[in-house]
Amino acid sequence: MPGTQLEAQIRSQPDQLERLLTSGSVKAQVHAAAEALHRVRRIWVVGTGTSQHAASLGAAMLQDAGRSAHAVSSMQFVKNAPIVGPQDGVVIITHTGETAYALAARALAFSAGLQTVTICREGAAFNDAINTVDKETSETYTVSYTTALLALAMLACEMGADAITTDKLALLPGSVRDAIGASGIDAVPVPRRTLTITGAGHSAVTAREGALKVREASRTLAEGFDAEFLLHGTAVPLTSDDHVVALTTPDEDGLVEGVARAAESEGIAVTRVAEPAPLPAVLAQIPYIARLQLMALRFAETKGQDPDKVIVGHWDDPGLWSIGSPTA
Question: Which of 95, 136, 238, 323 has the greatest number of CB atoms lying within 10 Å of its CB?
């Protein structure tokens, strides 16, 4: 489906990443956020859906800065809140600035007197924000995810991360441009039954986010798993009607490759996808996910699905989406 908003937003990512890196206002927002979090004891990184995947990688980035950082879903933070104290800080990730439980988590943090930072779209009316991009016009979110990851990386860099340095951040726009130009996923077929994406470490988060993009954009049943979790029983139902995408960067222990070979021996087709960008593993997830976003787009085109309108029917009930909001 050429000409979709999804395609435009995927291809906008190198320029948008470059814009964030060079924007004086974004740098000022990142500096203010780092100052706010400088003296906190622990940092809770909170998000829903795609933003929860960003939270997982963001917590790892802040850990690289020597901080005690923990990712948690927005609903879990609100309904089953961890023990927090006045010396804790909270980073809320909500692209739209409208997600019910993310707003509730932010309100809870404010009421507890915690330092807060909100990573959100341009134009959101938060005074503690790092703004990324305008609200996406495709419901298969892509550029808002990668720019949120960059905002988190810039924050970690400002807070003294060891591996996440300004010279590595500067490589990101070009690395994403390279990934979009040669994605390495063109041979992945739309499976007869399910697509299983697997990786290790930070790439396991990318596997889950990639599967979510495939489900949203093309309405194809897709799942993303840590390779260890896939091995421990989850792979049992897979057959030749399924397809496995193995994210082979990183794979120091050889588990991803071992799982891939086992799948092939069981008659399950496997595509291996590497990320060659010279980046720390957590930053490499930004170009890595761009490759899987393009796969999701191609699946949508192949199946004639609209990747821009994802939530329809009873799933689009405003009352359903308002559950958990601080005013509900």
Answer: 95
Amino acid 42 reads R
**What whole-number distance in Å separates Cα of residue 270 and Cα of residue 247?**
11
**Could you tell me the two tokens for 301?**
């085109």
Contact 10, 140 (CB under 8 A): no
Q: Do domains 5-167 and 179-303 have the same CATH topology?
A: yes
Backbone angles phi, psi at 82, to 5 degrees: -65, 165
Higher pLDDT, 153 or 96: 153
Task: Assess contact for 325 and 74: CB atoms under 8 A.
Answer: no
The Cα 203–Cα 288 span in angstroms is: 8
What does pTM read for this prediction?
0.96
Which CATH superfamily does the domain covering 5-167 fall into?
Glucose-6-phosphate isomerase like protein; domain 1 (3.40.50.10490)
Average pLDDT (97-104) is: 91
Phi, psi of 46 (to 5 degrees): -125, 135
pLDDT tens for residues 220-246?
999 999 999 999 999 999 999 999 999
pLDDT at 319 over 80: yes
Distance from C-alpha of 180 to C-alpha of 123, rounded to nearest angstrom: 28
Say how far apart CA 167 and CA 171 lie, in whole Å: 7
Residue 317's contacts (CB-CB under 8 Å, 6 or more residues apart) are none
Q: Are 100 and 321 in contact (CB under 8 A)?
A: yes
